[in-house]
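Can't paste images in this forum, so I'm doing it all in text. The chain is below; anyone willing to post the predicted structure tokens underneath?
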Amino acid sequence: MAVRTTWKIAHSCGHEVTHNLSDRPADRRAGFARWLEGRDCTDCWKAARDLDTESKEAWIAAKRAEEHRVAAEWAEQFDMPPLDGPEKALAWGERSRHQLVTAAYSALVSEGTWDEADWAVLEDKIRTVDRAGWWIDQRDAEGSDLPELLDAATSDDTGTENPFR
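Text version of the structure:
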């Protein structure tokens, strides 16, 4: 006797939907059917998700504004140059630079073996990379990788200004 492939699910929203679970392995169908019973049906889930877009967008905007404020204060405190690039990328680049550089300081100095003199040399290299897109591209990098990433930066990523202020 074959394991059934269709299940009539009474979702938590009250709707009953027949689901074809033939794309799942036979031994996982019953467990998935139980899991579905504890969830809203697809239509109700989508409706709830779509109703909440305004509060989600407001939350994201507030979070981005706070991240930008912190990144701008950090850039001013540590005398970081403004980034170059399209207007749309500048704030994202500043946030990415802030997050990567603070992660690098934590990994290399606070938790690592570097001293402040080693960090000062790296900080001067950080100031030379002023292309917002470069920082955005490195947003998922580990902080400990920053020295190697900066060594790989090309002349397209660095400005022509005097990095020694």
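The mean pLDDT is 90. The first helix runs from residue 29 to 37.
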